[in-house]
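Materials and Methods. Structural model of VWA containing CoxE family protein. The 378-residue sequence of VWA containing CoxE family protein from Mesorhizobium wenxiniae was retrieved and submitted for structure prediction as follows.
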Amino acid sequence: MMRGENLPLAAAPLLGFGRLLRRYGFPVAPEQVSGFMQAVTLLGPRSMIDIHEAALATLAPPPDRRDEFEAHFQSYFYGNATAVVEGEADDETRIKDDGGPGDEENKVARQAEGGDLSSGAELLSGRDFQRDGDGLAAFRRKLATALPARSSFRTVRTHARGKLDLRRSLREVVSVDGDIPSPLLRRRQTVPRKLLILIDVSGSMKLYTSDYLKLAHAAVQGAGRAEIFTFGTRLTRITAALRIRDRDQALAHVAALVDDWDGGTRMGPTLLAFLSVPRFSAFARGAALVILSDALERGDHAELEMAIRRLSARAFRLSLATPLAGDPRFQPATAALRAILPVLDDLIDGSSIAGLTDFILSLARPAPAAAAIWKRVS
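The predicted structure was written out as tokens:
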């Protein structure tokens, strides 16, 4: 595949789409990607239809993988792929990437005040965030060094406890006319894992959403690789908005971006929708994943269980923080929680920012599985 360093900025997405197809096993040659970019140049392009036609003509997806090709094209260039649940149009889970095209307003009337009820009915509304003192500055400073680490494929020079750097060692031998110097060593670099936070913004979580968004802003500012999504009846990626350094401005952008504040919840379908978009599900691979939700799933919880199992298979550590656990009498007694408890690494109290920040800063330390802890408590 060609290198993109000297390409015009506008060509980068086209090259990236070719790389995406190769990553998923499509037989795309470098010449085809070059032809794709040339075809787009010749067509203008006047619209996304031109880019789509150029992709079909030059990248030539096999007939038996045409549907998969269309799904990748929609998710990559539009970021608004939809996952249809049980074939019913009313149950579509809409996905919104930062600044993506808006969806038509839903006309479902509000049936309950605040977060008293959890339902699957969609309600679109806004949110206003006010500044207050919350002590997140210390959390932001500590986060980068507190996250779990992994070994990178990149290597760095070291004086001890490394592997022989044969190339540099041979150059050194030649430079000193054959004398044997001290061996030159390299070791694999250690880098922090990604932090992925999924925030439930449904009506039943209304009392906690504001604090969770402030925590998410601090996480994005403090960690080098953090991704934040909200979900209720829709799925929205808000990472870019939270990269704005001023918190008031960042949360104002988030308030305008998210459409489903304080409405119903379809946790299982929205998590499956997250997994259906390749570049979104890639965020979960090897990440420390924290879901901030009460996990009050209405109806059949099979989709929620399926999504949690798939997320667990991808993530380094999967944690559910529920504000319901702040009650000393809380037990994971709902059918949904009983189904997903064996898969969770952590089930913790999500009712306070102080507790959540302490927990996130402790993610690098091992802990007993959630099922073992709650079995002892019950």
